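Q: Please design a sequence for this.
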């Protein structure tokens, strides 16, 4: 079964146990994860020619390093704040590097945990899922990562508010 079929199966049945058992579908990232490691996790799901190279460059700033991502078409330095590296910036940069061919989406059922789950599919496959299940349903469970996404750096009040909103949406289905 392809990853697209696994997501379709989940959206049909909304059975969390089955999707959690799909170890090759979801990319689990802990809040303490090194940024270069999460780049590797996404790369593991990409065919060889589409993988993103990751180079660590020592710099004279409080965080001590820059991370440079490159592919055959693009090259970028992850735009971290001056003092620290962070997972949100690394995931947003990875999405930018993979776009428009691929989309990283945050599996929203992992919200509220210190380890978040993500799914990576070709953009055309996400579009097919949206056609099949509707944008609202797909986005409710698999939120697109954009250049403004906040995932790990959300405050507890923001997480609680979003979880409450999702619970209300679920009840209104």
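A: Design:
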């Amino acid at each position: 079964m392809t990853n697209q079929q696994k997501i379709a199966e989940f959206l049909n049945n909304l059975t969390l146990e089955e999707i959690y058992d799909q170890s090759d579908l979801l990319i689990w990232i802990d809040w303490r994860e090194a940024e270069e490691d999460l780049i590797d996790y996404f790369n593991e799901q990409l065919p060889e020619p589409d993988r993103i190279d990751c180079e660590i460059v020592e710099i004279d700033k409080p965080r001590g390093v820059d991370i440079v991502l490159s592919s055959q078409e693009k090259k970028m330095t992850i735009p971290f704040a001056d003092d620290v590296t962070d997972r949100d910036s690394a995931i947003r940069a990875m999405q930018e590097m993979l776009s428009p061919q691929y989309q990283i989406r945050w599996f929203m059922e992992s919200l509220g945990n210190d380890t978040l789950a993500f799914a990576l599919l070709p953009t055309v496959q996400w579009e097919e899922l949206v056609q099949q299940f509707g944008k609202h349903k797909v986005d409710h469970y698999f939120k697109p990562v954009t250049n403004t996404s906040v995932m790990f750096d959300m405050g507890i009040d923001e997480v609680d508010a979003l979880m409450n909103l999702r619970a209300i949406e679920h009840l209104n289905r």
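Q: Thanks. Anything notable?
A: Helices lie at 3-13, 16-20, 35-43, 87-98, 123-133, 135-141, 156-171. The first strand starts at residue 27 and ends at 30.
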